[in-house]
Amino acid sequence: MSYLVPPPLPAPVVVTKDVGGFVSEYQARTEEYRKENREVRLHECRSACTLALSLPNVCVYPNSILKFHLAYNARNHISDYGVSSELFNSYPDAVRARLGTLTREYKVISGAELIQLGIRDCNEPRIMVASVGKTVPRPVDPDISLSGMMHSVANAWSRTGASQPPPVPSEPVKLASREPAKPAPSDVVFAAFPLPPARPQELSGTEEETDSKLTLAEDKAADVPLPPSRPASLTLSYTQRLPVLARPRIMAGAAPILPSQTFVALATITQR
After folding, report:
1. Cα(234)–Cα(228) distance, rounded to whole angstroms?
2. Of the candidates 145, 141, 143, 167, which has an alpha carbon nearest to the alpha carbon of residue 154?
3. Would you say 119 and 53 are in contact if contact means Cβ atoms under 8 Å apart?
């Protein structure tokens, strides 16, 4: 992936191989990454791509390769020392000390060496540090606050020329009443439950009276006629047996088709 073609936010910019180009284009893209606080991960980066080292959220891998050299004019290939100084000044102090100066030939620094120089390792987790600053008070709308309302009333009275109204005594602020607390489980268990309904009058009385009432009920049930018996035609009998079929008789004068000496019974063969 090229340094100039980033993925959509908030994904980090992963530079797999970038051979450089116009320094002005890389400077503009670097400033965008700086404003977005975008993370840039470098694998192989050359020439103008090394501007990424000026970003606060840049990182390299131990096997990364970065190549540095002087900037030159694309038309006549003459070295441009003004642009080269801008490149060199954008690097961290440790990297500038390691390079010394930029030359026409590449100066190669590995990712492992850059990590030793203070560049963050991409394999390590990114640590976010909160900045310590002054607490900014939240703006208060004067039209809503009580003091603002009092000032507006005082200004209205002063514009009309009337005398100042008497000061309003400050009343204590009444807190909203809370809901009553729910009773404890023990209070619910031992609460006074309603009594069951009274027993009907016809069922009330002593045991002897109750027995006599049950006896009368049985006598009345005995007077009720029984239902008619089931017709015999609909009664099923499970004891009836199936009729035994008569075997066919041998006709008089009949003779076996084959002589009996030809075939021997199976039982006879088994005995042998």
Report:
1. 13
2. 167
3. yes
Q: Residue 32: CB partners within 8 Å, gap ≥ 6? A: 38
Q: Which of 101, 11, 93, 12 is nearest to 54 (CA)?
A: 93
Sequence-ordered strand ranges (E) for the chain = 13-15, 40-46, 58-68, 107-110, 120-121
Question: Each residue of 102-130: b (16+ CB within 10 Å) or e?
Answer: beeeeeebebebbbebebbebeeeeeeee
Collapsed DSSP state (helix, strand, coil) of residue 227: coil
pTM of the predicted model as reported, rounded to 2 decimal places: 0.46
Q: Are strands 120-121 and 40-46 parallel, antiparallel or unpaired?
A: unpaired
Please give the Cα distance from 268 to 93 (Å, whole number): 119
Q: Give the torsion through C-alpha atoms of 181, 185, 190, 196, to 10 deg.
A: 100
For residue range 70-128, list pLDDT tens digits in order: 988 878 888 888 888 999 999 999 999 999 988 889 999 999 999 999 999 998 877 65
| Mean pLDDT, the chain, integer | 75
Q: What is the Cα–Cα distance from 116 to 109, expressed in whole angstroms?
A: 11
